[in-house]
Amino acid sequence: MIIMKSWQRSLLKLLNQESAPKVFFGTGTKEGVTTAIVAAKAKFVTQIYTVELSEALYRKASGKEFKNKDKVTFIHGDSRDVTPKYTRSIREPVFWYLDAHYCITKDREAAPNSFPLWGELEAVRDRGIAGDMVWIDDTHTFGKARPDLQQPWEDVTDKSILKFMGRSVRKSEMIGKGFVLWL
Ligand SMILES: C[S@@+](CC[C@H](N)C(=O)[O-])C[C@H]1O[C@@H](n2cnc3c(N)ncnc32)[C@H](O)[C@@H]1O
């Protein structure tokens, strides 16, 4: 049985609306927890892509067994390179779940330190597909100086994201720990 956190239930509620994109693309696979939940429980999602920078984490996540794993394509690579390739090649609406950044794993190991968010957002914005949705994870760190995370979160706020995305955004809302955009 999968035990879900409340933000994961919020994510699924969005995905389980018939009008939501049927393709899910996640950055920062880590151990594949959210990937497995989406595969098992998002009933309209037909295809899932997930990209991870750390080879060890990529191997760990892709080696796990879970329901509907055949829907998932695990990608080992840097989201800064991989995401723009997919923003160009997938020509239908996508749910972009952006969660790639430094973090500590369950085994207390440090995941690689990089912060691809702005490049990911640029690639999604510039592909210009109406119907895309974007979930930017970790709203609790927005606008904060987090030297412990070695990341520039202080530049990330709902306002700075909306300014960066410009007129591509039709609607936005804070949901769970995600800042969600409808393009
Ligand atoms: C917060 S964790 C992701 C948690 C995961 N989404 C989940 O729900 O279980 C962040 C992950 O992003 C990965 N990461 C960091 N920079 C990355 C990059 N440039 N490209 C791909 N993955 C990256 C880290 O290795 C780490 O595994």
Overall description:
With 183 residues, the chain is α/β, with parallel strands linked by helices. It is built from 6 helices and 7 strands, in the order αβαβαβαβαβαββ. Helix 3 links the parallel strand 2 and strand 3. The chain is globular and about 40 Å long. The mean pLDDT is 94. It binds S-adenosylmethionine. The site of S-adenosylmethionine (SAM) has 22 residues, from helix 2, strand 2 and helix 4.
Which topology does CATH recognise? Rossmann fold
Q: Walk across the major sheet and give the strand order.
A: 3-2-1-4-5-7-6
- State the low-pLDDT regions, or none: none
- H/E topology pattern: HEHEHEHEHEHEE
Roughly what is the average pLDDT, rounded to an integer? 94
Attribute tags:
alpha/beta; Rossmann fold; seven-stranded mixed sheet; binds S-adenosylmethionine
What is the strand and helix layout of this fold?
Layout: H1 6-15, E1 23-27, H2 33-41, E2 47-52, H3 55-62, E3 72-76, H4 79-89, E4 94-98, H5 117-127, E5 133-137, H6 158-165, E6 171-175, E7 178-182
Parallel strand pairs: 1-2, 1-4, 2-3, 4-5
Antiparallel strand pairs: 5-7, 6-7
Bound molecules: S-adenosylmethionine (SAM).
